[in-house]
């Protein structure tokens, strides 16, 4: 499966039918709006030391991939890839941000996400001999155990529900001997939409449909979807999670 991705900013509104990522007693975020991309900023993230970096402790790959405003990647699936979840990420001007390549010959299905300078920023692979279906995400291009960033584990739940737990490297948290994940991913396989939360804080939304003022974005089609990353979250990390969930449920 090949994914073609475009980046836009300043998507207004949220879906009315979201699963609840935060307790009902707390107000849910409404009318999320991102400021326009700073005029002084270059197209590539992290290439200008003056750009505000991650305000909170949400950087996983690198703080340069955290932005103070919302980011939306538009993704179009293609049917011609023989190597798995390849995709290319562009901005609205057609400038390439990232290219993910994978190998059909790899037993673990290893994938590498390259930046515009052909540097591998993250790699990922299927974990073999695991009680639960699991993918691992690593810093760099070699998927080395020493560069492990997280494990993405499928939770066994009935029906069409999506339930995935993400454990960052070094996580030793537990509650009554049950491991506590750093991120939780929930959604619905029939709608092919899901949400990423850090604890009770929403981090990203992935959906076929997203409310938008532009008619071009109002319905993305059956082979397209959007990845909306909330401010101050690591968008490269989120892209890795999207591919992992796609592998766990849809391939």
TrEMBL record:
Q: Which InterPro entries match?
A: LOR, LOR_sf, Tubby-like_C
Q: Which Pfam families match?
A: LOR
Which protein family is named in the record?
Answer: Belongs to the LOR family.
Q: What is this protein called?
A: Uncharacterized protein
């Amino acid at each position: 499966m090949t994914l073609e991705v475009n980046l836009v900013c300043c998507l207004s509104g949220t879906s009315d039918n979201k699963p609840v990522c935060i307790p009902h007693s707390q107000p849910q975020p409404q009318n999320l709006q991102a400021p326009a991309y700073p005029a002084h900023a270059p197209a590539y993230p992290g290439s200008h030391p003056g750009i505000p970096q991650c305000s909170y402790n949400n950087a996983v790959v690198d703080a340069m991939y955290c932005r103070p405003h919302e980011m939306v990647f538009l993704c179009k699936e293609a049917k011609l890839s023989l190597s798995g979840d390849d995709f290319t990420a562009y901005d609205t001007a057609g400038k390439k941000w990232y290219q993910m390549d994978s190998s059909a010959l790899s037993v673990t299905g290893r994938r590498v996400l390259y930046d515009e300078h052909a540097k591998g920023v993250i790699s990922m692979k299927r974990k073999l001999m695991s009680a639960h279906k699991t993918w691992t995400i690593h810093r760099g291009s070699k998927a080395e155990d020493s560069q492990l960033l997280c494990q993405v584990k499928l939770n066994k739940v009935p029906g069409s529900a999506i339930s995935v737990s993400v454990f960052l490297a070094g996580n030793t948290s537990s509650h009554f001997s049950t491991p506590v994940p750093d991120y939780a991913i929930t959604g619905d396989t029939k709608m092919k939409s899901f949400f990423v939360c850090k604890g009770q804080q929403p981090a990203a939304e992935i959906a076929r449909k997203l409310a938008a003022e532009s008619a071009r974005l109002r319905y993305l089609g059956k082979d397209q979807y959007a990845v909306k990353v909330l401010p101050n979250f690591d968008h490269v990390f989120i892209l890795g999670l999207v591919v992992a969930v796609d592998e766990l449920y849809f391939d």
